[in-house]
Amino acid sequence: MPPHAEAPVRALSWDGEQLLLLDQTMLPHEERWLALRDAEAVAVAIERLAVRGAPNIGIAGAYGLALALTGRPDLGTLESAWERLRHARPTAVNLAWAVDRVRDAALAAGPARMAAAARAEAQAVHALEDAASAALCTAGATLLAELLPRTPRRILTHCNTGALATGGAGSALGVIAALAGHGPVEVLACETRPLLQGARLTAWELGRLGLPHAVLADGAAAGLIARGEVDAVIVGCDRVAANGDTANKVGTYAHALAAAAAGIPFLVAGPTTTIDAALPDGAGIVIEERAAEEVTHLGGVAITPPGTPARNPAFDVTPAALVTALVTEAGVASPVDRATVAALLGPSA
């Protein structure tokens, strides 16, 4: 661990009766924990990004469904809470995967054991994501160390992909932290407009990790890549189609194009729970459109003339052809295509 590193970051925890969430809308200025005891509170927390990141919204959704059944373990409660949580955010596949698992476990257990089965399955989802994070961080760090033999390794990332976003240590940011064990690392973190997850959250995590870093405007990334100031780009993912097309925080596609033009590696890191094998390609990924006020206002203050329209797609899709490698807990897909992605999921894919 670097000499100035602090205690590991936690984004959520479960005490058997309530879900505790670190409210990410308050970071980096305040570390405020929310104690949630019902499915509606969890759904609202997911929608307003108090908890975010594909794996962590799946974990939160799983616990939310378990909470719904604690007081009323019946089929009606199960179905209504499942429907509410499953659609709290549309792009990340992990949310639907996690709440579907909890629902299936509860149905299989029957009314008498429904609540206990749901709690056990939610904890199993959490454990799976933690284990996946540990494995993919190791795999990604090993790959980057091989691709980039010279140090210090200068890595650019986008949005937030550390422990705040996933189970365990993270996905892309977890890979970067593990890479520090192979030699010096310097991190460039894009601010990630409009909600500044990079400036607020990634910088906060990097500070706690004790890793050298700088925050930059999203629009500055391509120029720095072209000038040879970046050795590789690594990002997370919210949904990966069967052919390897990848949805991630808006702005990712531009970084992939810049990396391809400069001839540097562009890696995507995420657990296999983010792969949607039923989706043929990225054209079918639903892109969440969030409120215009996230673009027209900053910190609650208007930055555009009154009445100015705004578009606010939260994600974009990077074609598989631009991805050097997809790093998961099940291994690395490279080149990224339908066959290599299917291999990550095993014979049942």
UniProtKB/TrEMBL annotation:
The record marks 159 as: Transition state stabilizer. Its EC number is 5.3.1.23. Catalyzes the interconversion of methylthioribose-1-phosphate (MTR-1-P) into methylthioribulose-1-phosphate (MTRu-1-P). It holds the Pfam family IF-2B. Substrate binds at residues 52-54, 89, 197, 248-249. Pathway: Amino-acid biosynthesis; L-methionine biosynthesis via salvage pathway; L-methionine from S-methyl-5-thio-alpha-D-ribose 1-phosphate: step 1/6. The keyword Amino-acid biosynthesis applies. Belongs to the EIF-2B alpha/beta/delta subunits family. MtnA subfamily. This is Methylthioribose-1-phosphate isomerase. The gene is mtnA. One of its GO terms (biological process) is L-methionine salvage from methylthioadenosine. Keywords: Amino-acid biosynthesis, Isomerase, Methionine biosynthesis. It catalyses: 5-(methylsulfanyl)-alpha-D-ribose 1-phosphate = 5-(methylsulfanyl)-D-ribulose 1-phosphate. The active site is at residue 238. GO terms for molecular function: S-methyl-5-thioribose-1-phosphate isomerase activity. The keyword Transmembrane does not apply.
